[in-house]
Amino acid sequence: MKFVGIIGTNANKSYNRLLTQFMKKNFSGLAEIEILEIKDVPMFNETNDQTASSVIQFFNKKISEADGVIIATPEHNHSIPSALKSIIEWLSFNIHPLDGKPVMIIGASYDVQGSSRAQLHLRQILDAPGVNATVMPGNEFLLGRAQEAFDEEGNLKEERTVDFLESCFRKFIRFTEVVNILNIPEEVNFEPGRYTVTTLGHNGDLPMVVTLSSDRIE
């Protein structure tokens, strides 16, 4: 199974980057994680559509091809960074690779709450029409006091923290399997023909004729 891990900040130093890199290295036996950086993503501006640009199409391709997405978000002023919001805006403007895509949210912050409010806001954003991602419920991984959580090699110090992160990731793998089965289009077969139907209108019955081919409403 292959995932992409989006680093939700354009900062050079980030504990969320360390956290995602830790997952990539330590859980390589469970799944492949490719890390994507948002440093080169332009600020969203609908009057200057850059959907076709190489950087946006790169994200579009990587997310579309992945089984699922992991997003690591810091917390800035009780919300996600503007750089992370911009890439989600681009990916829900004229293209929609996150539609139905399984998503796991993780976060690290200096505070003890571990980006909890940013994660809550991110869930709301990912549920918006146009984005419509399928976010794994519960199993929130909130790494508080991130400045004390890693050793010099970038490994998490606390074994119980590692165990909980692995537990969340294993559940996400199973969640991804189920969601992707549900995303398989169902085969629809109609009896071709013209059908006269009547429905209730504001000022009385409204007659209509519906024409069906074998696989669609014409």
Features:
alpha/beta; 6-stranded parallel sheet; 22% strand; elongated
Give the topology:
Layout: E1 2-7, H1 15-26, E2 32-37, H2 54-65, E3 68-72, H3 82-90, E4 102-108, H4 116-126, E5 134-135, E6 141-143, H5 159-182, E7 193-201, E8 204-212
Parallel strand pairs: 1-2, 1-3, 3-4, 4-5, 4-6
Antiparallel strand pairs: 7-8
A few lines on this structure:
Helix content is 31%, strand content 22%. The protein is built from 5 helices and 8 strands.
How would you portray this structure in words?
- This protein is an alpha/beta fold.
- The chain has helices at residues 15-26, 54-65, 82-90, 116-126, 159-182; strands at residues 2-7, 32-37, 68-72, 102-108, 134-135, 141-143, 193-201, 204-212.
- The strands form two sheets. Strands 1, 2, 3, 4, 5 and 6 form a six-stranded parallel β-sheet that branches. A two-stranded antiparallel sheet has the order 7-8.
- The chain is elongated and about 70 Å long.
The class by helix and strand makeup works out as alpha/beta
Largest sheet geometry: 6 strands, parallel
**Helical proportion?**
25-40%
Distance between the termini: 38 Å
Give the overall average pLDDT: 95
Shape: elongated
